[in-house]
Amino acid sequence: MTRLLDLPTLAQLVRNVGLADFLRQLAAQIEADFQRWPAFEKNARLAHHCAQGVIELMPISDGARYSFKFVNGHPGNPAQGLPTVMAFGVLADMATGTPLLLAEATLLTALRTAATSALAARVLARPGSRCMALIGNGAQGEFQALAFHTLLGITQLRLYDPDPQASAKLQRNLAALGLPVHITLAASIDEAIAGADIITTATAAKAHAALFGAAQLTPGQHLNAIGGDCPGKTELPPEVLRAARIFVEYAPQTRIEGEIQQLPAELPVTELWQVLTGQAPGRQSAADITLFDSVGFALEDHAALCLVQRLAQERQLGHDIALVPGAGGPKDLFRALR
Ligand code: NAD
Predict the structure, then answer these.
(1) Is 205 in the pocket of ligand 1 (CB under 6 A)?
(2) Catalytic residue list
(3) Is the pLDDT at 258 greater than 90, yes or no?
(4) Residue 79 and which of 52, 88, 281, 334 are 20 to 30 A apart at CA?
(5) Can you list the domains of the chain with their CATH numbers?
(6) Does 136 sit in the ligand 1 pocket, CB within 6 Å?
(7) pLDDT of residue 250
(8) Which residues pair with 159 in a beta bridge?
């Protein structure tokens, strides 16, 4: 049988564990899987584009378990009342091919993206970073804010979005949690990023955007750019990329989809796992401008699916569905029709 975790059940699981604790466990699982990077068989994700957006499949295996995530990216969706990003994931046993888990992954994507961002910032941002600018206050916003508060100790947030309702929603949702975080609404991107320790960009537009230029940066800032994740969809101009030391998840995928699609393909970049395993340096000086050019990699979803499978099992959440034929009479498929 395959365990089904739908959206209400996954939300229940996260509430049950506690949001902050869930983020901690997720970051630890993602870090542990980045630490065993060579164990994974990896591919750049498979993308199918249309004028409105993209649908992607993200497969990966560590030899024991296989997972894939279905995810879309349609920046025009909110105007139709739909989320920009929606996803579900499957975890399977490699030895028999049995699908073990079918899980919602829209919420899980926001959680794992935020946990990965905070994990990267832990080795790339200046120690003692407290102030983060958050540019783009849509669906990912709360999760980024929470992960950076919980895992990095961010206590000041400056929000900017051209849609004031998005920023108000983010401020409201965070206030309801009663976190010791001081939130200000900035009137412009310039105002939000001036002197911030960390700049997170989470905007959605199918275009080569330039949210800010190199002249607006302060030495030592860390950029956590999560919104540029498709060919023709970037957030930062090349001059910002040239001013920064660049870190990516999986270079073959990021060269196609990330901010670095705008740079020559031979430009050296560092993969996050190299820093996490001590094989490459992260931040080297207090004045470095560091950039985590995040596009989202299958390993993070694999880690997230393995974690929720274990947690759901421990708490007996979700229910089993007959997605594929069960054991018994393996050559008599026809009996399913009787
Ligand atoms: P969303 O549509 O809910 O929110 C995007 C927000 O960006 C909107 O509120 C919009 O008003 C705002 N925005 C647009 N242009 C802006 C600008 N110039 N300045 C400031 N704000 C601007 O989308 P979401 O689900 O929050 O996702 C945000 C981005 O992150 C998307 O591009 C998505 O594809 C990407 N994403 C990346 C990862 C990853 O792993 N790197 C994971 C999930 C989502």
Answers:
(1) yes
(2) 229
(3) yes
(4) 88
(5) 2-108+298-337 (3.30.1780.10), 117-293 (3.40.50.720)
(6) yes
(7) 98
(8) 134, 185
